[in-house]
């Protein structure tokens, strides 16, 4: 599940065999094909938790999807991370109100990756010689923050990067007994101001997507 529907198209065309487009609703493309002989779908999720929540909910509850792997981009919160680094999100803090609403504001629910998927992704990355950093991230409602000080504070607590979907994905998967994982490529570094080029993004996406697909079919 990439956020960008055109990335879904690129993944289907580049990595899947006999991929067929099953949905163009809202231009949020979805494709099903096979990867190493195993049926796999790739579905855009859009940007942000409200959009991604709809696709995750329906994939699980209406199409019996049991494994959801997000392949996205993120902004690094620490200067230690370089552009194009690949991250596996073990857990996802959020500033979204969705889970506060879910738990009446009484519980700070901790959305986490499925451990089996995370372990498999780490193994697959190691086998491919792809360096992958595992750790917690932030799923933010807003792309443009007016509180960079809070991002610095999160970094003090080990939070690696910010994106906009993972907390909802992990929560919905947990709720409906599916497995979920978020893999990310660092496209920006919020501390250094570096940004990767379109060409660089594409090259690193390939590594991240291969790890995701190898993990999905185990
Ligand atoms: O590259 P994708 O998967 O869209 O992910 C990141 O990019 C978008 C913001 O530019 C947000 O969706 C964020 O989570
Ligand atoms: O800075 C960034 C880069 C990608 N995605 C985000 O949400 N933030």
Task: Detail the topology: elements first, then pairings.
Blueprint: H1 5-15, E1 17-23, E2 30-35, E3 38-43, H2 49-63, E4 67-76, E5 86-94, H3 98-102, H4 115-128, E6 132-139, H5 148-156, E7 161-163, H6 166-175, E8 179-189, H7 198-216
Parallel strand pairs: 4-8, 5-6, 6-7
Antiparallel strand pairs: 1-2, 2-3, 4-7, 5-8
Helix pairs in contact: 2-6, 4-7
1-O-phosphono-alpha-D-ribofuranose binds next to strand 4.
Characterise this structure.
One of its GO terms (cellular component) is cytosol. It holds the Pfam family PNP_UDP_1. Its EC number is 2.4.2.3. This is Uridine phosphorylase. The chain has about 220 residues and is an alpha/beta fold. It has a domain at about 65-215: Rossmann fold (3-Layer(aba) Sandwich). Helices cover about 40% and strands about 30% of the residues. The strands form two sheets. It has a five-stranded mixed barrel, surrounded by five helices. α2 (about 50-65) packs parallel to α6 and α4 crosses α7. It is globular, with a radius of gyration of 16 Å. The mean pLDDT is about 95. The structure holds 1-O-phosphono-alpha-D-ribofuranose and uracil. Uracil (URA) binds near residues 73, 162 and 187. 1-O-phosphono-alpha-D-ribofuranose binds near residues 3, 4, 47, 72 and 73.
